[in-house]
Design a protein that fits this description.
Largest interface: A-B, 45 and 45 residues
Number of helices of chain A: 13
Strand content of chain A: 25-35%
Helix content of chain A: 25-40%
Shape of chain A: globular
Radius of gyration of chain A: 20 Å
Largest sheet of chain A: 7 strands, mixed
Number of strands of chain A: 20
Oligomer: homotetramer
Structural class of chain A: alpha/beta
Chain lengths: ~375, ~375, ~375, ~375
């Protein structure tokens, strides 16, 4: 079958690879109809991880079940399903507690597995014609048959739940104000989720005009950090007080000010200043314990200078970590089915699999409006 | 009346000061029968804060109501009461949400007030014969008449709730394992609270033998960090996995290894390594945004090098801030009354007010077993 | 001053009564600009309670502060404020726990007080020119100056929070389906709140066409119980499964079928059938321990035949009781200010105080579209 | 193999039945070393259910894994395991939400399955030499090898988690007072759990002296309802107020007063009177929608006269339903392993499988101290 294969930094190719096979009674094979490119795929694409050439990318996957293992109970051939980017077993203590992003079974020696991602276990990605899905009863979310809402549903694999997770970690509640740092796909999904949860006022901080426009279109207040301190701008609009809650949808590649210099802790520390005493921070934005490309020695080891004194003085609480997609995907699916959520507004391009190399290149450069690409194998 | 007055670094005196007066209809005047010295009093005592000479110390106060303002409803002359160290109004949005440590009313321009503490508002302390208590209906917790449990009840003003708060921030639940860093009075109260909440296994990390002995006596497992990495010792005793939860009962004056060198983030970073993926950290230990005595320029501003990469990778959640005593003190009082809790085991000395200068000196030097002193004016 | 005074069953009059006075340092006097008539006022109006002639009605009150007691801290003359219908002290253990509807201070011998309501304490109502508000710092919610949103804000006194409370008791969460029994003002507010909280599908059960139309207009699905079993209709629209959650916005005067015969437990038992196993029921609809007008002896004592067997078999959880308005009113106010909520769509009439007798009569008969009346003294 | 087979009302026999076989790749076969008799087995034994002759009893099972299906990942031959009485799939929406007692997969058409119980699915019981366990990765809880704590661990299958569940439904928290109605094995486990969770005062209501003695021995306060109204006795010991929380560990076969007449709602209604306003009730005690032996026509259909008026007036919340054992069994196991819990104090008899007929007879008659029997095949 054809698949998107990582060749070297800044280069992927669509190549023939072996078809996936059922390896375990609980596996299914899914024929992929949609697979999205994620911002975190670019970390590998840019050579900023330990990813080796040959890896098949793609952890946001949706398709039709083609083959079903003998132990699978609830999934049948022909079912249309979307998979969380996390691979999870469903029975370890972390899965049972809802922390499916930290499964102890699927990637021995580490808490958490994923498709098509370096160090996340032996699971080829879904930017391909077919995908093996382990523990299929647990990992497949059934969708209505047909092709309706395809572009909304594919976002259930990662970014819609991930944005929502930021709000959950910050316990965003009706009537609260929220500052979302980052207006990329995850940031927009976080702002969208905050509004779905009843927030009264949501700020989105970015400096890319298209992102800020999208934020405004969904009902959020755009804050352009190139035009002045985002903390001050938000305080001005909250009676000097700051917001009740904050979401970091940027992570360790954060850039400070107008100069675009990387400053890995700038978003975390801005959130500490933006959120009022007793508030909460949700941090779905990625931080890593090892970043060879970091601007200083400490940051290369994931050690960042955090304003702990201020954090404590304000009594802030903070939740971090990658999203446990399974905790939210069913409910978010139902919001889509019932017409209450249409997250596909963040998708900029839908392309055939063959155009993946071009899509990666343009998405990586953020040119021609490439913000979120869905591939259709 | 007599009171403990701060004179200069490393010097307090018992002096005559004016008696407190009712200043507002909701005030009461309490004749103090017990007032404890807190580790955080030593920050001022050592001259490591902006505290000016003349301040009356004492935020852990218990006594008998002597005078009652015209607006007070539920408190009467003769009532025996203990006050949270936090001064709180009871009606601002933070108090209503239970965050009485971050009251927006009592210390304008800041979230939170306290008795006898620099920058915490115009409230003289209770290491004195009398104390003015504002918003008395909200700030007085009634106790049974008499003198029974006096040494247990005085701990309701701060350290018992503060230790408990560490467990609450970490959501310590029955059957969980917990690592408490710090075996001082707050750490021991955190360990004691964890056991009261049903933790299955509690570790207390310190290197002072008396503290470790006390930890063992209440049912915790002592970990002497002078004898090797506490992270490794705890992992060894948890099947290599680490604990479910962690509590930082040390704060910014943490010392690393056997050398007793201050390393302000060592406890936070050790907790990140000690607690397993999906765990939670409760941080009642004090961190400050300005510490002139800190070992480096960043730490002087409360900026600490935190292993954010690892924290995120493990999906940890963290709660911080000083304790909202009012959220817990009634329930903890009832545990004392019903004979289910006896926190007074941490008290080392009970002395008359006149001996405060000696008590401060010895407690500051940690000599002669001075770990927790209660003054009886 | 002029006030709405209860004379006898089915008769109120606007009469001169003595002006309220400051009775306690924590009181304020409010000049009422809006006071709404509540469905629960009709219980007294119809003579179906122990209310004695002479009582001044009105527990939904909004106005301008005219006089301020010496102990009041945060409220000033000229402030525009809305009061929860509950009178609460702010410092008893129930208030501190957020259960301000069950204050132990304001109505000795009973948990909970209110303005202008039989057995709820010595607090005349606000369908009058002026109102005394005790514990003013706690009981007054400040509003922006002016007259904007007056008709939305008055609903913060009771029915918007009460509808919201139904959703809170049922823990209505994003993506869930909810059945609201009752399309009166509280039921519509419950449905509106469910949608604000992100419910995916909300059903409103009633048989009055205007109510069902309003339900549809806000995005809910109307279910006319005169056209067939509401349980069956809802199951049909939820794949045979029933809803995740349910709200009883009817209470003890529930009527069954098309015959309009009172059957006090019909809504509770319908909810047990409507909600799927593991679901939750929120019951803000009023049930009383003594109802002289009830259809049978048991019901007269508040004893109802409940399908406990089915309730248990499905593992349902249920929350009941009158709303703790203070827990929600600030956040709901902010949704109004930020333009995210406009609950005034339920108000049918705004009238001068003098027209209260007519308003009561027509509202009680449910004629001429009288569904929710706001009086402007 | 040998198994306890239901023959007719009041008669079981130990007979040869076919050995269980692996039927699905996710099954295991367990050689039973301990299987307890449950009070709910007596419902079938007494002929008070629709159970047909031939059914093999036993839903509290512990043993050694003998055979392992090809799809099982985490369980191996020789593992010592204890199974929740609920059979659950681990991947349906109820299981994912933690409601494993209401699995939608294992017993089509009903929410929830169990071993050896009428209407709970095609799962023979474990009062036998061997047991088939479906979805073994999810349903087996691993125990330390050997035979240590066997009598504590067997209680993890049902009654220890079920008692704990009562406390969880009532959200029993440190410092609270709790009334547990019923001093049988589940009631004692509820009281024990309340104390483990830090309750300050726990009452156990029963009239059997041995039960009340056991309650006292674990630190609870015994209340003999044969000596006067339990409500009044408890109010006397709580300052007239009643308890914060309540647990119904009796269910529908409740008896009133000294006369031992069945009155199915007496415990529920007593709890409404016992628990103070704003409190919570946990109801793990069984109620059924169909009880042919009930004392009246309504009760035969599971319809009980409940004091809804009082329940609402007090703003009580109530949680019901059979226990989701999987939510608690791991943590409770760890309390046993770490020596913090020893629930086996409720076990009165340990007998070989052959003595099951005698054990049923004596347990049913509550003679010779038969309160909790563990069979060892």
């Amino acid at each position: 079958m054809k698949a998107v294969v990582y060749k070297e930094p800044f280069k992927v190719a669509v190549e023939e690879v072996p078809d996936p096979q059922l390896q375990h009674p609980n596996d299914v094979i899914v024929r992929i109809t949609s697979s999205a490119i994620c911002g975190s795929d670019l970390h590998m694409y840019e050579g900023r991880t330990a990813a080796e050439p040959g890896i098949v990318f793609g952890h946001e996957n949706l398709g039709i079940v083609e083959e079903v293992g003998a132990g699978v109970t609830s999934i049948q051939q022909g079912d249309r399903v979307v998979m969380p980017f996390n691979v999870a077993c469903g029975f370890c203590k972390n899965c049972v507690a809802g922390h499916t992003g930290f499964c102890l079974t699927v990637n021995p020696g580490f808490a958490g597995g994923a498709y098509g991602y370096v160090a996340m276990g032996p699971y080829p990605g879904g930017q391909a014609e077919r995908l093996r899905v382990p523990f299929a009863d647990f990992n497949c979310l059934k969708l209505p048959p047909g092709t309706e809402h395809e572009t909304d549903f594919i976002l259930l694999a990662d970014i819609f739940p991930t944005g929502y997770h930021g709000c959950e970690l910050a316990q965003v509640s009706p009537g609260e104000s929220v500052a979302v740092y980052g207006g990329g796909p995850v940031g927009l999904m976080a702002a969208y989720s905050a509004l779905l949860r009843g927030a009264s006022k949501v700020f989105v901080v970015d400096r890319v005009p298209e992102r800020l426009e999208k934020a405004e279109r969904i009902g959020a207040t755009p804050i352009n950090f190139a035009e002045g301190s985002p903390v001050e701008q938000i305080k001005e609009q909250t009676g000097g007080e700051g917001t009740d809650k904050g979401v970091d949808a940027v992570g360790y590649q954060a850039q400070a000010g107008a100069q675009q210099r990387e400053e890995p802790a700038v978003v975390l520390n801005s959130l500490v200043d933006t959120v009022r005493a007793t508030g909460m921070l949700g941090v779905p934005g990625l931080y890593v314990p090892s970043d060879p490309g970091a601007p200083d020695e400490q940051a290369k080891r994931g050690m960042l200078l955090v304003s702990v004194g201020r954090l404590f003085e304000k009594g802030l609480r903070m939740g971090t970590g990658q999203c446990d997609v399974k905790r939210y995907n069913r409910q978010l699916r139902d919001l889509i089915i019932d017409g209450r959520a249409t997250p596909s507004f963040v998708v900029s391009h839908e392309l055939p699999l063959d155009e993946a190399p071009k899509a990666y290149e343009k998405f990586d450069k953020r040119v021609e409006g490439y913000t979120k690409v869905v591939l259709h194998p």
